[in-house]
Amino acid sequence: MVKSNRTISLMGEIFYDLRTQRNFRLTDFEKVGLSKSSLSDFESGKSILRFDKLDAALELMHIEVSEFEYFFNNYHSDYFVEICDEIEDANYMQDTVKLKAINSEAGKYDNEQGNRMIFLATQNLLYGLTEREEVEVTDLMFNIEVWSYFELSILSFVVEHLNTRLTLSLMKDFWKENLHYLKVKKYREKIVQIVCRAAVKYISENKYSIAQKLLEDVNIALIPYKKDLFCRNMSRFTLGLLLYKSDKTVDGKAKMESSIRLFDELGLPEMKAYYQKIFDESVKN
């Protein structure tokens, strides 16, 4: 989603305030690959920084991305992010009443791109997408230049409707250009969720080699985050599903069952129920 000029300007203003309060000069950021002119343009609202560059600049000032987001949201309530969190909760809990309410509200204002993306996401979760809507979703995802949590959330809701070429291209780009996203827990969870949902899609289509490649890449990316049981458990369940469907039924079933138990032990009943449903449908079929 292309950010509004006001949003870009506000991000730059907050960065400027944080930088000057900590007595950093524009030239100090050259050591993390940011020129004086590019940072000046960002602070004055003329351009936006890529996530990895913003993260590197904040890290230099010993500021967490979550802290920067706190300052930003204090001035600019991110309505769409809040709605995406509500969609996620409703999806895990299979709360179709909530999903329908969000879908209906977004549909009233779907001439605005953010609401249109919310509408398409909930439309997919509730009813599936028409061929025309699938093309629209693909175009929207393909044209995103700067990924925020909102766009990642939308991708997680519609990833199964992207064609294989686009899905693999997006994932390749993340592993090549955007590993900084993984440093932030909520971004990391969303990216792993996207990969796992895509892998489940390809497993259901018997495209096991594609699913295996996606899971191999995400497991490599998760090596620095060995304590992140939530992300690793999503990946573990999906690997179990892959093994089960590719005739390694004993090992696959054991992995899926242990993953479900771990979600329970982590105090995540909605996740347990969500993956239990996938398990039951997979074993039954």
From TrEMBL:
Coiled coil: none annotated. PROSITE patterns: HTH_CROC1. GO terms for molecular function: DNA binding. Residues 30-68 form the HTH cro/C1-type domain. InterPro entries: Cro/C1-type_HTH, HTH-type_regulator_Rgg, Lambda_DNA-bd_dom_sf, Transcription_activator_Rgg_C. This is HTH cro/C1-type domain-containing protein. Pfam families: Rgg_C. PANTHER family: TRANSCRIPTIONAL REGULATOR, TRANSCRIPTIONAL REGULATOR-RELATED. It comes from the Bacteria.
